[in-house]
Amino acid sequence: MAPQVIDEVVSSGVARVSRKTGAKRDRLFYTGAGAFFLVLTLIGFQHYIFEGKRFDGTSIEPSMVATVVAHSSAIFAWYVLFFVQSLLIYAQNRRLHMKLGWSVLVIAATIAVTGPMVATGSMRISWDVVFFDWSARQFLLIMYSEIALFVVFVAIGVLNRKRPRIHRPMMLMASLSLLSGAASRITLVNSVFGLHRWMGLFGPPVVVGALLLLVRVAMTRKVDREFVVGYAAFVVATFVVSGLALTSVWGNLAGKIIGH
Question: Structurally, how many domains does the chain consist of?
Answer without folding.
Answer: 1
